[in-house]
Specification:
about 50% helix; three-stranded parallel beta sheet; alpha/beta; about 15% strand; single chain
Length: about 110
């Protein structure tokens, strides 16, 4: 027998997005998600929660596995006014995207 004691990705994404938008007052969320089942689950949770809140995403980007250059996506999100980015990816891609966001801010 196997017991799982964590929420499915769809539900944990919904809870995180709801928290960030309601309690942290973000208004223009964006999402970057990897092109696999995990990324699709995160995107589904993101989309479902925005619909439940009668809100829309500022922008979404699908990430190809092993991509290393995120400058175009980060620049687009900044120009579109994203104030929150949900990263539905594991290790390599989020590190690259966050590094690009930091370096484009001059920090």
């Amino acid at each position: 027998m196997k017991f799982n004691n964590i929420l499915p990705y769809v539900e944990s994404t919904r809870a995180a997005l709801k928290y960030m938008m309601e309690l942290k007052n973000f208004k223009k969320p964006c999402i970057m998600y990897q092109d696999d089942e995990y990324g699709k689950n995160v995107l589904d949770g993101f989309t479902q929660q925005l619909e439940a809140m009668k809100s829309t995403a500022c922008l979404d980007h699908q990430l190809q596995a092993r991509r290393v250059d995120f400058s175009a996506q980060v620049a687009k999100m900044k120009s579109d006014g994203c104030d929150m980015v949900l990263l539905g990816a594991v290790i390599r891609e989020p590190i690259g995207a966050m590094s690009e966001a930091r370096s484009s801010d001059g920090t």
